[in-house]
Structures are given as C-alpha cells and as structure tokens.
Design a protein that fits this description.
Helix content: 25-40%
Structural class: alpha/beta
Shape: globular
Bound molecules: uridine-5'-diphosphate
Largest sheet: 7 strands, parallel
Strand order of the largest sheet: 3-2-1-4-5-6-11
CATH architecture of the domain at 2-176 and 215-240 and 277-290: 3-Layer(aba) Sandwich
CATH class of the domain at 2-176 and 215-240 and 277-290: Alpha Beta
CATH topology of the domain at 2-176 and 215-240 and 277-290: Rossmann fold
Length: about 300
C-alpha cells in the first residue's frame, strides 16, 4: 500500500510510519511541523519508500500518484496546546479532516481517523464503551479539541455514508512512549522530566483523577489491525491499566529513582475525573490484547528522555 499519513512527524505518526514501512508499505508523511519534529523521522531519510512533505493539511492538498490509504493523525493533543494554539487544534480536526477525506475520495483510497477518548469529555461512568455519547463542555477550554474531534468523527461517517469512503475511526486513550515532545505539557513528559531533574512533580488538583496508560507499540499494533479490518464504527484503543495521577507520579519516581517531592497545583478546568476504555470491541473483533506493563513502558520512555537531556 501507499499510505498518506498526516502528522507523520509527530509522536504517534512517526511510530506508525515505522510500522508501515516495516510491513513493506510506502509512506508519504505530511506534517506542518507545528508540533511534529523532523528529528522523529530523521532515521527514515534516504529510505526510498518514505517521503516527507511539509504542509499544513488544514489547507487543501493533493498527492501525485496512487494512494491506497489516507491516515489522518495530524493534531496537537496536549491540553497545554489547546491554550497555546487553539485555532490549529480546531483546524486539524475540522478543515484537515475534510481535506484528507477529499483526498481519499479523489484517489479511491481507504481512510482512518485518529480520534480520541476526549469525545467522551468528563465521563459519567467507567469504563467507557464506544456506545457512550459523552459528557463534553461545548465551549470550555478543552472544547477546541473535543468538539473538533467530534466534528471529525461526524465528517468521517458522513463521507462513509454518503460518499462511500471505506473509513475507520480510532479513539485513542492516553498513549505514551519515546518521541513525545519534552515540553508538550502532558503528564508523561512533565512527570518524567521533573523526576529526572529531581524537581517537584506537579500534580494538578488532588491527584485522584485517573488515566489508563497505553504504550505506543501495543497501541499501534491495534491501529494496524484496524487498518486491515473492515470495521467502520469507532474503536477504543487503550489499556485497562488505570492509575490515579498520584499513583502515576509514584510510579515515575520509582522507575527514575528520583528524589523529587510531589506538589499539588490548582486543578485543571474540566479535567476528566476518570478515564478508562472498555476495549471489548478491539479484543473481540480485532483479536487484540495490550501486553506492555506500565513500569516496562515507562522504563523505555524514561531512557528516551534521559538521552534527549
Ligand atoms: N496532569 C498533572 N500534572 C501535569 C500534567 C498533567 O497532574 O504536570 C494531570 C492532568 O490534570 C490530567 C492528567 O494528568 O488529570 C492527564 O493529563 P494530560 O495533560 O496528560 O492529558 P489528558 O489525559 O488530560 O488529555
């Protein structure tokens, strides 16, 4: 397959590029480099099956030649970015999704959307199955991401229903691993960097809010299975390794051997209190099971950040 991959220089996008190339596919990575980094794809320079195009896919674009799959992975995903670059976040979910789907129509290509557990907002029950419609504040500080991704899902299903696009939708839960941005502001890079520098670990609020952390290699294995499937309904991809943020801070301190203290700052507005995916659909229909334990994934992530520093 020849795959056009937006966000191909980002954290997950660059790992997906590696995976696709390892399976013998060709990749055209399209990235604005607003949050992506050429460093993430530096090792692919010179690979004849890999091309990089610097372009903001919220502006219309075309790609020469055959395209078999369009994978729309471009978007900032850190709540810090929702404040710093809100319009880029909105456009990545809206205009860019439309542009990617138009490309899929023009090329007769299949399509996959990277959506998010944020479509569930601050969920009223847990774990969250795909059938849950969510509890989203439509105009709060996270809305630029949440509503753009909900729009992206609606757009994808409209192209599927009315323009026959062979589409798939992933709902990623918290995913971590090497190549996350050091200054991205999310909990994994923040805590790991604070711990490695023996600086205070900053918990927003009392730390009782939960997240379920999935290691990137496991998560992308499921993405590839979904690409090969003909499932059009959204699929949660994440793990059941739910931890409170306080437990997560303690795990980071243990893995890094840090002497950092834990401090509490103001809670973030509209911060989801409990997040854990119901992964029955991925299990039953894709035969997928995540295998990496949190401590094991953290070791690899810590090593990456250690080398960066
Ligand atoms: N968080 C925190 N300290 C930080 C960064 C994040 O306590 O320095 C918390 C945040 O409030 C949230 C959780 O960690 O409850 C996960 O935040 P993240 O920014 O990684 O993404 P989210 O899952 O909220 O989209």
């Amino acid at each position: 397959m020849r795959v056009v991959l937006t966000g191909g220089a980002g954290f997950l996008g660059s790992h997906l590029a590696d995976l696709l190339l390892s399976k013998g596919h060709e990749v055209v990575a399209v990235d604005s480099l607003i949050t992506g980094s050429e460093q993430n794809i530096a090792h692919l320079r010179g690979n004849s099956k890999f091309e990089f195009v610097k372009h903001d896919c919220s502006l219309p674009f075309s790609v020469d030649g055959q395209v078999d799959f369009v994978a729309h992975f471009a978007s900032a995903a850190s709540p810090d970015d929702f404040k710093k670059i809100p319009f880029d976040v909105l456009r990545a979910g809206s205009y860019a999704t439309d542009n990617c789907l138009e490309l899929a129509v023009a090329k007769g290509a299949k399509f996959i959307l990277a959506s998010t557990s944020e479509v569930y907002g601050d969920p009223q029950f847990s774990p969250q199955p795909e059938s849950y419609w969510g509890n989203v504040n439509p105009n709060g500080p996270r809305s630029v991401y949440d509503e753009a991704k909900r729009f992206a899902e609606a757009t994808t299903m409209a192209y599927h229903r009315f323009k026959d696009v062979d589409s798939r939708i992933i709902r990623f839960f918290n995913t971590y691993g090497p190549r996350m941005r050091l200054d991205d502001g999310r909990v994994v890079p923040n805590f790991v960097n604070q711990a490695l520098r023996n600086q205070p670990i900053t918990i927003y609020g009392d730390g009782s809010q939960t997240r379920s952390f999935g290691y990137c290699a496991d998560i992308l294995d499921c993405v590839y299975r979904l690409m090969e499937s003909d499932l059009h309904d959204p699929v949660n991809i994440g793990t059941e390794q739910e931890r409170t943020i306080l437990q997560f801070a303690e795990a980071v301190i243990k893995v890094t051997g840090s002497s950092s203290e834990i401090i509490h700052l103001d809670a973030a507005i509209d911060d989801p209190k409990q997040r854990r995916p119901d992964i029955t659909r991925a299990r039953n229909l894709l035969g997928w099971e995540p295998t990496t334990q949190l401590e094991e994934g953290l070791e690899k992530t810590v090593q990456y950040f250690r080398e960066l520093m």
